[in-house]
Amino acid sequence: MKIIVTSIFVQDQDKALEFYSETLGFVKKHDVPAGEFRWITLVSPDEQDGTELLLEPNNHPAAKEYQKKIFAEGIPATMFGVADIRKEYDRLLENGVNFTMEPTKMGEVTIAVFDDTCGNLIQIMQK
């Protein structure tokens, strides 16, 4: 068994698609109508057959509440791995990304946290 799709709640699918593709650099894999919304997934440009990230609309009240609460508590919704966190941090800063935590060494890893502009905090990590 392996993980093929994981999701993240977003306030606006179009805004999220733009941020995750243009700012973060993920590649759109699927964008198909799914009732009132769309099934939008992205993948890493280095692993286009790898795990897909689904941009899930937060239209359900429980989803909105969950998203608001973990954001308010400073809890990242998900984590992405990077090869060089300082380089990625600098690149994202240049693209206007707002970090809530700059690269910080924690044991054997270094992490940083940013706001995805779609209702989530995202953590990046370098091993």
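[next item in queue]
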Amino acid sequence: MSVNYGSKRIVVGAHYGLRDWLGQRITAALMALFTLIVLAQVLFTAGPIGYDKWAGIFASQWMKTLTFCVIIALLYHVWVGMREIWMDYVKPVGLRLVLNTFSLVWLVACAGWAIQVLWRL
């Protein structure tokens, strides 16, 4: 008769669990709040919606700072989601590494572009 002292556990990213789940909820709430703030500014500003109106909304320092925080939150949110998709559905480790690397490089490039657009206003 064999004695079972526990099962062997294969760790494939399980240590991210609660931190990433909570991070996704917090970043989603921040992005939803930001959307409401921008929507309120668009609705309560008189005149037609054009470049001048959009530039005016994002011209103040507090709005640039809030937008920067939302960009960072969005990048983290997307990174966690994409990493989970690659871990769950892509089994070859080499391909998963390539996809993770491509995703990270793409997100950093998008962040650079978004920040350049934001601070050029």
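[queue empty]
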